[in-house]
TrEMBL record:
Protein name: Branched-chain amino acid transport ATP-binding protein LivG
Membrane found in the keyword field: no
Presence of the UniProt keyword Mitochondrion in the record: no
UniProt keywords, alphabetically: ATP-binding, Nucleotide-binding, Transport
Domain (ABC transporter): residue spans on this chain: 5-229
Molecular function terms from GO: ATP binding; ATP hydrolysis activity
CDD domains named among the record's database cross-references: ABC_DR_subfamily_A
Family: Belongs to the ABC transporter superfamily.
A Pfam entry, by short name: ABC_tran
Superkingdom as given in the UniProt entry: Archaea
Length: 296
């Protein structure tokens, strides 16, 4: 499958601070790729370079096969979604979308308002919208140039859980129906891992991992499970043939989920909760640091 973003040996520094240190990764066409890492890890700097807003010091960057730096042709084929709507807040939703549409004359803003259920807000000023609806309007405006790629920088950072779930559902539908590739930076892993198909993880300006989500979590070879039981020591003995260990109140084990559940059941141990390895777990495994501890 072809790549819509290719980064090789990218380095960016600000005075004595190195923001990006020789990073390389690619983004597959048609994917929803999560660009994840703690605050200050280099996500926004990378997004700005991919968007043509910032020039790299070293390395090669190709977006849709072109160098994005100061390149108007790129901006005709991609859209950028920020953490919040920065456009004039006194504009109405209708005026804002029509103004953006007039720049490209490709997509009817009425169709977009209908698709996003924004008709009843058309005369509402942007300043009067909730944070969730502002992001919905921004995502709607991102479709007005009929983009092949949408790059989003922390698009759900200021939203409540309900608004985040709705925003992510819209992204999934756009990806399936229109084939738009998404590259989404975020530090909110719990919601993001339900949406993305691929992941690029960055930490302290370096790429930690880049792959499909399944490969990243190890699910292509075997399940990595976190299990809460009523009798952990007995469960651990029942799993003696597996790579299992106790971690706090939980048991962490690798193997086939059905076989593991059967082994625990046969030992007459009650399973209270079971889940597969998460992106947080994978970050800890690759960096030796807890993801949440780095969000301060």
């Amino acid at each position: 499958m072809s790549s819509v973003i290719e980064v090789f040996g990218l380095t960016k520094s600000f005075k004595r601070s190195i923001a990006l240190n020789n990073i390389s990764f690619s983004v597959e066409k048609g994917s929803i790729t999560g660009f994840i890492g703690p605050n200050g890890s280099g996500k926004t700097t990378t997004i700005k370079i991919l968007s043509g807003l910032l020039k790299a010091n070293k390395g090669k960057v190709a977006v849709l096969g072109m160098n994005p730096w100061d390149n108007p042709k790129i901006r005709e084929r991609i859209s950028i979604v920020f953490d919040k709507l920065y456009f004039p807040q006194l504009n109405t939703v209708e005026d804002f979308l029509y103004d953006i549409a007039s720049l490209y004359q490709r997509v009817d803003p009425e169709e977009i308002m209908n698709e996003f259920n924004l008709e009843r807000f058309r005369k509402r000023k942007l300043a009067e919208l909730s944070a969730g609806y502002k992001q919905k309007v921004q995502l709607a405006s991102a479709l007005l140039n009929d983009p092949e790629l949408i790059i989003a920088d922390e698009p759900t950072a200021n939203l409540d859980p309900t608004a985040r779930n709705e925003f992510n559902s819209i992204i999934t539908n756009l990806n399936k129906k229109k084939g738009i590739t998404f590259f989404i930076s975020s530090h909110i892993l719990s919601e993001l891992e339900r949406v993305i198909t691929h992941v690029v993880m960055i930490d302290r300006g370096r790429i930690v991992a880049s792959s499909s989500v399944n490969a990243f979590l190890g699910e292509e070879k075997e399940d990595k499970l976190v299990i809460l039981v009523d009798k952990p020591q007995e469960a651990l003995r029942a799993l003696s043939n597996y790579e299992a260990r106790i971690s706090g109140a939980y048991i962490e084990v690798k193997g086939d989920i059905k076989s593991i559940v059967n082994a625990i059941d046969e030992a007459k141990v009650k399973i209270i909760m079971i889940r597969r390895s998460s992106l947080d777990d994978a970050f800890l495994e690759r960096t030796g640091r807890n993801f949440q501890d780095n969000l301060q």
